[in-house]
Amino acid sequence: MKVFRLSSKDATQFLKGGEMGFDSLLNTGRIGAMSLSNRVVLPAMDMNLCDDGDFSKAEIAHYTARAAGGVGLIITGTGAVAWPSGACSWHQPSFSDDRHIPSISALVQSVHAAGSKLCVQICHHGKTAGVDTAQDRPLLVPSYPQGKLDLTALQDNTMDELIKLGSASHGKQARYKEADEDDLAWVIEQFAQGAKRASRAGVDAVEIHAAHGYLVNTFLSAGYNKRTDRWGGSIENRGRLMTEIIRAVRNQIGDLVAISVRLNGMEYGLQDGMTPSEAAIFAVMAQDAGADAIHVSANAHNPFADFTDGPLPSAEAQYREYARIIKKAVTIPVIAVGRISPEIGDEMISRGECDFVSMGRQLLADPDVVNKLKAGQRKSIRPCINCYVCVEQNFFDAPPKCAVNPALCDESLAQLVSTSHTKRVLIVGGGPAGLEAARIAASRGHLVSLYEASSRLGGTAWFSKLTTPANGALVDWLEHEVRRLGVQIFLKKRLSAVDILELAPNEVIIATGAIRNRPVNEHTDYGDSRVYTGDDLRALLTGEGIVTGASQKTRLVARLARVFGISSNISRVRYWSKMYLPLGKDVTIVGGGLVGLELAEFLAERGRTVTVVEEQAHLGLPMAMPRRWSAVQKVANHGVQLRRSSTDVVASKDVIIANNVSAEAPIADELRAAGMSTHVIGDAHDVGYIEGAIHSAGKVAREI
Ligand SMILES: Cc1cc2nc3c(=O)[nH]c(=O)nc-3n(C[C@H](O)[C@H](O)[C@H](O)COP(=O)(O)O)c2cc1C
Ligand code: SF4
Q1: Which end of the chain is more exposed for a tag (fewer CB within 10 A), N or C?
Q2: Which has more pLDDT, 660 or 453?
Q3: pLDDT for the residue 281
């Protein structure tokens, strides 16, 4: 007789309603003398919230929220050991003076009280130390930089952005100095003294930053280090600065404070740059010098070209292989990073590919990842949508913003205050803005009903999954949350002002999205081309709504797709669109903003000859910078013709209008005229895509 047995993992999963148990991720762990309650790490992410080198209240609140959310180990955003020398930011933590010890102590106590351990990341920023340039010091490098960075991506930056890019350096021109023996002895001592101050403040660990193009990294990498003295040439010589720093730090802090070393597992776009196998040799050298853990990241030489490869990868688990290679080489714990989901992280640990998993942006988007996993609430984790809005602020020396989490850098916004007067709140529109408003209002105790004209929730964000699948996770999360919170949802219900007045709610929130207008002079401007707006395109691909201008055959295919259920699932549409797309061979996209570029890539990948015509001088606005630079590069690599500062539409059968979008909510005027308390949010209020939708919704729903 066959007997079915449940493993303990299956049993836990069963008890948690079919969710994975995440046993490996939630298991306790150890790094050096530091014991940790689970394997999830918050990696260093600059908050740029320090006051004169001290951790501010807002920054302490940020780390404490992640500690309270269950994260095993908190690593602070990179601090400068000789601040302001060797600093990349005016607002980063300083470890250069005893006067900073009280603020480090306050942070340690707060994180400990919330149940986590604290590690500080210490660094000298070498060739990227903008504060050195601002204060007229040369940048320390192993060797003078060779060649010039390709800066063509900057043509898609506005003047305002270009000015802000020079914030840390005060817009001054950098000078370089090849570090001599005295400089290097000073650097080693600064690391040792900085680590000692951190240890006196009570930290559990320090992380030596030997990655991301900073000083120690540039000595390790043959791409930057061209020296022929004892600090360059052989791999031993290139590793010398790192190992001497590790030994000097260990001498100062003893064995009770752990040392992690952050290394690049790979250097993208750099001739002679580090490879995973070379990184493994450096990892062993670090271990032999006294490191307790290796944190495996990666970097790209040109941030204006390849930032979405490193240090912030766009592909899921992009650095998995690098961590695995290093794990095989060392005996100390390995921390992996790089868009690692809880599922993949759990699998990596259980397969012995790493010991700990860092989740960076995911923990900016939701500080409570670990607690939600423990509680079997995986679906309640607010997903990071890989939009790069957070890190764009780093380029401006400013605190990060999160598109999906308005409470980043202001944790007070995360505390939703229960209402003392329960109101009936009616929301019109089921896109991200409407859903987020519903989520917050319902969480606060209001009675919320949401009306959506189409047959599904998600609005244009649902359709954007076609070109940007990461947006889908946000729509799924919002829908899961509003249903969990008991929001009454009415689909296929288009309400007029009269309907709303009859329903007589206490508050109305209009979230009907932007209007995508047809061009006024369609026939003069585009001749006999078929002209589609975003709405037409959606109707074409999903078989829903009215398609203006499409041929009989195209409409028939759209209808068939709907009948066979292909178009109700956007992942299926994405898949099938590789085989059939109801558009001709040549497509012109009018508008090279966020939507236009994403669409151009999608169509080019499906064999279309695409031209993008943008009236303004810059492409990709308002995409966050690193993503914008990559998106422009990607479509150009796909052969898409890009025309900036142009209104000339080339002759092509199909023209897609990806601009001409306006914020309108006429129904709101009617309701206000009738005396109803009415709010307008999201693109209906001001076209701001997902970030604008989520932030404006939160602002209104917190206040009603
Ligand atoms: C806003 C922001 C700031 C960052 N600052 C640092 C930093 O100070 N030091 C560092 O080593 N890495 C920094 N990183 C990189 C992260 O530690 C992490 O390696 C990266 O985000 C990839 O992980 P993820 O895909 O889980 O976000 C930063 C990332 C972000 C998003
Ligand atoms: S801003 Fe975007 S990329 Fe950054 S954490 Fe938030 S959702 Fe993720």
Answers
A1: N
A2: 453
A3: 98
